[in-house]
Amino acid sequence: MFTGFSDATIDFLWELRFHNERPWFLEHKQVFLDTLDRPMKALAADVTAALEQAYPQRVAVVVRRDRRRISQAVAEITRLPHLPRRAAAARQWTV
Fold it and tell me: pLDDT per residue over 1-14, tens digit each?
Protein backbone atom coordinates (compact mmCIF):
# COMPACT_ATOMS: atom_id res chain seq x y z
CA MET A 1 0.00 0.00 0.00
CA PHE A 2 1.35 3.39 -1.01
CA THR A 3 1.91 5.67 1.98
CA GLY A 4 3.60 8.53 0.16
CA PHE A 5 7.13 9.66 -0.49
CA SER A 6 9.34 10.79 2.35
CA ASP A 7 11.63 13.78 2.65
CA ALA A 8 14.47 11.31 2.09
CA THR A 9 13.08 10.69 -1.40
CA ILE A 10 13.36 14.37 -2.27
CA ASP A 11 16.84 14.52 -0.76
CA PHE A 12 17.89 11.49 -2.82
CA LEU A 13 16.53 13.00 -6.04
CA TRP A 14 18.37 16.29 -5.41
CA GLU A 15 21.59 14.42 -4.69
CA LEU A 16 21.09 12.37 -7.83
CA ARG A 17 20.64 15.54 -9.85
CA PHE A 18 24.08 16.77 -8.81
CA HIS A 19 25.80 13.37 -8.80
CA ASN A 20 24.35 11.71 -11.86
CA GLU A 21 27.13 9.15 -12.21
CA ARG A 22 27.04 5.38 -11.99
CA PRO A 23 29.58 5.03 -9.15
CA TRP A 24 27.65 7.46 -6.96
CA PHE A 25 24.38 5.71 -7.74
CA LEU A 26 25.81 2.29 -6.93
CA GLU A 27 26.96 3.62 -3.55
CA HIS A 28 23.44 4.93 -2.87
CA LYS A 29 21.44 2.12 -4.47
CA GLN A 30 19.92 0.96 -1.18
CA VAL A 31 18.67 4.50 -0.52
CA PHE A 32 17.10 4.46 -3.99
CA LEU A 33 15.41 1.12 -3.33
CA ASP A 34 14.08 2.17 0.08
CA THR A 35 12.96 5.72 -0.67
CA LEU A 36 11.96 5.73 -4.34
CA ASP A 37 11.71 2.31 -5.96
CA ARG A 38 9.52 0.50 -3.41
CA PRO A 39 7.13 3.44 -2.84
CA MET A 40 6.84 3.96 -6.62
CA LYS A 41 6.00 0.29 -7.15
CA ALA A 42 3.41 0.49 -4.37
CA LEU A 43 1.89 3.58 -6.02
CA ALA A 44 1.78 1.82 -9.39
CA ALA A 45 0.09 -1.21 -7.83
CA ASP A 46 -2.52 0.97 -6.10
CA VAL A 47 -3.23 2.99 -9.25
CA THR A 48 -3.47 -0.18 -11.33
CA ALA A 49 -5.93 -1.71 -8.88
CA ALA A 50 -8.03 1.45 -8.83
CA LEU A 51 -8.10 1.65 -12.64
CA GLU A 52 -9.00 -2.02 -12.97
CA GLN A 53 -11.86 -1.49 -10.55
CA ALA A 54 -13.06 1.70 -12.22
CA TYR A 55 -12.66 0.43 -15.78
CA PRO A 56 -12.99 -3.37 -15.72
CA GLN A 57 -13.35 -3.53 -19.51
CA ARG A 58 -9.80 -2.15 -19.92
CA VAL A 59 -7.85 -4.65 -17.87
CA ALA A 60 -4.82 -5.14 -20.12
CA VAL A 61 -2.74 -2.53 -21.84
CA VAL A 62 -0.36 -3.70 -24.53
CA VAL A 63 2.65 -1.48 -25.06
CA ARG A 64 3.85 -1.49 -28.63
CA ARG A 65 7.06 -0.14 -30.06
CA ASP A 66 5.23 2.12 -32.48
CA ARG A 67 5.21 5.57 -30.85
CA ARG A 68 1.98 6.57 -32.52
CA ARG A 69 0.17 3.54 -31.13
CA ILE A 70 1.60 4.13 -27.65
CA SER A 71 0.48 7.76 -27.76
CA GLN A 72 -3.02 6.74 -28.84
CA ALA A 73 -3.24 4.07 -26.12
CA VAL A 74 -2.12 6.53 -23.43
CA ALA A 75 -4.55 9.15 -24.68
CA GLU A 76 -7.42 6.66 -24.60
CA ILE A 77 -6.59 5.35 -21.14
CA THR A 78 -6.10 8.78 -19.59
CA ARG A 79 -9.21 10.28 -21.15
CA LEU A 80 -11.78 10.81 -18.44
CA PRO A 81 -15.16 10.79 -20.22
CA HIS A 82 -17.08 12.01 -17.17
CA LEU A 83 -15.04 15.22 -16.89
CA PRO A 84 -14.81 18.10 -19.34
CA ARG A 85 -11.46 18.20 -21.14
CA ARG A 86 -10.36 21.37 -19.37
CA ALA A 87 -11.14 19.95 -15.92
CA ALA A 88 -9.37 16.69 -16.73
CA ALA A 89 -6.27 18.58 -17.89
CA ALA A 90 -6.26 20.82 -14.83
CA ARG A 91 -6.66 17.98 -12.35
CA GLN A 92 -3.67 17.74 -10.05
CA TRP A 93 -2.59 14.54 -8.34
CA THR A 94 -1.61 14.88 -4.71
CA VAL A 95 0.07 12.46 -2.38
Answer: 888 999 999 999 99
